[in-house]
Write a structure and sequence with these properties.
This protein is about 75% helix and about 0% strand. It has about 425 residues and is mainly α. The chain has a two-stranded antiparallel ribbon with strand order 1-2. About 35% of the residues are buried.
Amino acid sequence: MRLAEPKDLLTSLAPIAYFNFIVGVSLFRRTYSKNINALITLYFIVFWILCIFIYYTAMTVLVSSYFGNRSSTAAIMYQALVYTNAIVALTVPLLAMYSRKGLQEFIKRMEKLNDIFATVLGFEKNYKSLFKQQLYYILAILVVILFISISDLSWLKSDQTVWTNISIMITLHHPILVMLVTDFTFFTIVRFVWKKFKLINAALLSLTEPQINAHIGTKLIKVSQNNTISSFQGIGNAETKNASQRRYLFQTIRKSHLELSKLVVKLNTVFGLQNLISMGVSMVMITGLLYTMYSGSQIKHGVRDTIKEILPSACWCVVYILKILAVSHSCANASDEAQKSGQIIYTILGSAIDRDFQKEIQEFALQMIQNPVRFTACGFITLDYTYVQGVIGSITTYLVILIQMSDTSSVPPPASPNKAVT
């Protein structure tokens, strides 16, 4: 059965919207009747209260039964990691409710911009591709969570009740799932913006002279499907389009670039606090998880038990690292693609004879200077590769300090294999 083409941008984001709904985050909301909206709100309130109860039940058991076998530093670190995750999981739904209207405005403005891309510039909306990509990413996330959940089952105690074990598993895995879903939402939208900047660059390249166009990086040409590019070829050819038509198309591209830059600012506003919490917590969690792996490796027992000790922490550490890399990579690519427009317009400026056209190009250059495309977390950090470098340096520094302060050597080996807690 073939997948039907989504009608609009909000429909194409249905997979991620339902994923948010399942984990208890109300980030997307269509227009329903008052009764349905009331039921949805009640669902999220009950879900939030239930999470508090489950977290409290699991925390009591974890503190009394799992954290006591470690050194004082390691025990404090374990508790800090679990409590931090729980607090974030309870905070994210509240942030989603606060930023929901801003996201709805973003989607409406992006939908209007898509209409311009389709009607004036000739690019296909291609919502089906966006829909499929979300399904693939969601499947990957579920596989990772399932794998780690299975690996974590090995250290649950058999003498505990089923409800206690379920509460512990939910407390350890639901918070990271909530953060993964919300970060994935931001990641998906940023990639969508990145592709729009690619289309703008493809449109600008088509306005260059044929001989110049051949020397510009081919990566900019490969921005969409072959039929999309072929339908746009020749728009900027001076032999078939007069100067006024080229200037009109250039004005449309310039306005589209400006609107897309403003949408990036809107996106930073909607996800700013969430990204600040997510990126900050991720750095703390990676540091703590690396230290728990070090702490577990210092306890004297067999190789198999050592692997069981550090495997859950290692898996979660990889998840947090990949999350930071994915968000930073997508944001850096979108920013770089927006900056490439400046290189292309100066290429057009060198071949432009019409003075009015040259003035439009200069205004475009000034517009890009005044509206830089950057993804930030409330203005505190810039989400690109420089943030990754800063995270590596900070984690290394804090990890060295924790190891120097560690007192794991003073802890006698336990009588039975100790269990690792992520």
